[in-house]
Design brief:
The complex is a heterodimer.
Chain A (H helix, E strand, L loop, with lengths): L1 E7 L2 H11 L4 H4 L1 H6 L9 H5 L1 H9 L5 E10 L8 E12 L4 E9 L5 E11 L1
Antiparallel strand pairs in A: 1-3, 2-5, 3-4, 4-5
Chain B lengths: L2 H15 L21 H15 L5 H6 L3 H13 L1
Helix pairs in contact in B: 1-2, 1-4
The chains are: A alpha+beta, B mainly alpha.
């Protein structure tokens, strides 16, 4: 079983993430700093991108009654404000004893490039 | 499969899950003896045992287990059918 959805990253999301976390790393806040480091623009927080895994579990796989056990993610390419991400999850293991699923995660940008890959274990509470 | 062999395989599973090649367990070992043995690692242990021995545990039976020895006995009973 596979589910996916799309989201476009905005400056407002980036600002809200800063408010929540207090992470003022200039890589995410300063265009000049990010350019000096070799990036096209300010880089979206990796954990902002990962936060949509909460949506994947809570709304799609399995959706209601979901309880995230663990998440593993690898950030393969930078994400920028204005990128439209496709968050995709595919169940590749199911365990009936514990009513849990293991999900393979791929997040792609609008160019189809893989920006995040990972795994998630989600129980059904 | 002998109880000894089951115990050997269970030890390997513990070492793998807890990422410790020198981990030593005994019949009396329980979650109080291994710091990382929490509910999530317990799930990992049980799922690995199901896969390794080709079994499907009943959650009620698994939740009653008090230590490694009882787990090994349960596996032996299930393997003997």
């Amino acid at each position: 079983m596979k589910e996916s959805f799309q989201v476009t990253l905005t400056q407002e999301m980036q600002d809200l993430f800063l408010q929540i976390t207090g992470d003022e790393n200039p890589l995410h806040r300063s265009f000049e700093y990010a350019k000096n480091k070799g990036y096209e623009d300010k880089v979206v927080y990796g954990l902002l991108t990962s936060s949509f895994l909460s949506t994947l579990a809570g709304m799609y796989l399995p959706g209601e009654r979901s309880l995230i056990h663990s998440v593993e993610t690898k950030y393969q390419k930078p994400v920028y404000i204005g990128d439209t991400l496709t968050i995709e999850g595919e169940i590749d293991e199911k365990n009936d004893t514990y009513e849990l699923i293991r999900i393979k995660i791929i997040i792609r940008n609008q160019k189809g490039e893989k920006v995040v890959k990972g795994r998630m274990q989600v129980g059904v509470a | 499969m002998t109880r000894e062999k089951i115990f050997e395989d269970v030890t390997e599973i513990f070492r793998d899950v807890f990422d410790d090649d020198e981990l030593v367990i005994g019949d009396e070992t329980n979650s109080a003896d291994i710091e990382d043995w929490d509910s999530l690692e317990h799930i990992e242990l049980v799922i690995n045992m199901e896969k390794h021995f080709g079994l499907k545990f009943n959650i009620k039976e698994v939740n009653k287990l008090q230590n490694v020895g009882e787990m090994v006995d349960l596996i032996q009973r299930m393997l003997e059918g």
